[in-house]
Fold this protein.
Amino acid sequence: MAELPDKGTAFIDWYLAVVEAADLTDKRYPVKGMNVWTTYGFRARRNLDAVMVREIEATGSEAVEFPALIPANEFAKEKEHIKGFDNEVYWVTKGGATPLDVPLVLRPTSETAMYPVFAMWVRSHRDLPLNVYQIVNTFRYETKTTRPFVRVREIHFFEEHTCQVDEDHATERVRSNLGAFRRMAEAFCLPYLTTRRPDWDKFAGAHYTIAFDIPLAGARTLQLGSVHHYRENFSRPYGITYEAPDGSQRHVHQTTFGLSERLLGAIVAVHGDAKGAVFPSAIAPYEVVVVPILGTDSGPGPIQTAEAATDRLRRAGRRVRLDAGDERPGAKYYRWELHGVPLRLEIGRREAEGRSVTIVDRLGRKGTVPLDRLETGVAERLADFDRALRERARTAFAGSVTPARVLDDLKDSVTVRLVGWCGSEECGHQIETAIDGALLGTLEEALPNPLEAPTRCIACGTSDGVRSAIAGRPM
RNA sequence: GGGACUGUGGGGUAGCUUGGUCCAUCCUUCGGGGUUCGGGACUCCGAGACGCCAGUUCAAAUCUGGCCAGUCCCA
């Protein structure tokens, strides 16, 4: 089997090799930016969705699903929004051979599909808050190079849309979303940055945008998702109003929360190593792979013990794969490491006779669990694996964000930088020019590894109103 | 949006400059047999490709044009 490219020096090549060799996607589908979800990749995606659903529903959101096609006139109602997406939407202009009177947009996101309907759903303050989400595919005509999971044209998209009685309640919803994402990221074992985007980089139509990013090697950053506060920017053009207790008609304040399969790309990018993918247990297509070690003289013990162990773990709700194929154990070890399975159970004659299994995690830590407490032993090992993975990611994160004091410092950044910023657009652009990237925004939540807060703007030197900001080079 | 380059079995490749020696090379993969099996086994047999459509030519993987797909650079 071929060696993987080096993650440190050829990151993109490494990433592409891993997602392909680990059978997460088939990118041979002949349309740019549209890849096939393989059985293994689909398992990971389903687990990812399950975490998102669990956490968002815990905050009082309910699932809905809106159609994929949006009439052009509805799409065009909010001026900034249409401007932001005009160049990257797919149009449906014919039904069969008949040109459509009103062309249809294939949703790039669903504000303009949902909000005309929200206007009908929301009548009274008693209908609020309206918190709904959907997980659907959206389409954006990306012109840049597409990459599996990270930049695609057909996006597996999670989007929550809410209507609140006023600005403060919408702000609260934004906070709630930040909390939900924090709990999701805990399951993904991913440390991340939370920043408020500069005005020139906020979502099309938003009052403000808070985004989650992860730092990668070479000052690169990858956006994982975002939360937007829309104020009344959409409720006015779409006429989403309610009758308040005092009898007045008011516009709702809206928020959205968006995530995508890019999270899967981030998980591969952050946790993966020289041996391939590494999945946190919540996402892993299989949490455990059982490898019986068979020999001519081993008798039926190993295979029977392995089958029994697999069966017991399944009954305990674990995702388990028994690999009883006719290969040498070493070949199986390499394959399942490449596929990122957290735990491997080895069961040979020694284990079958000793009533215990050898258990090795994806970080290479080896141990033994007695068969009579297999279920709890595996559960403990998985929790311990997640802890270690989280710790490893946090250490890498700490080395990927460093402070910079002067503009010149930014030029040859090999990490994402923490800088002081006075908030002016002019200084912001100077920072972006200096790092040859972007000012992601001001820190909205503390870094996982707190750094000393800057006291002066890195561009103009003022100490008035200086905030901690993050600069990097978005992928 | 502008420019450059690339396309050969499932994956990676040789061949293309100078058309013929190519019913296309090698590695890997896949199917079957046998010996194996505690970190990528060996062996035997078999399967599988010139992106698509035109054109030039006695002859096209090789030259020309269009299309499709991909990569990179610049805005």
Notes: Residues 1-2, 20-21, 28, 30-32, 143, 145, 293-296, 298, 326-335, 346, 348-350, 358 of chain A lie near RNA strand B (CB under 10 Å from a C1'). The radius of gyration of chain A is 25 Å. Chain A has three domains: 11-271, 288-384, 401-474.
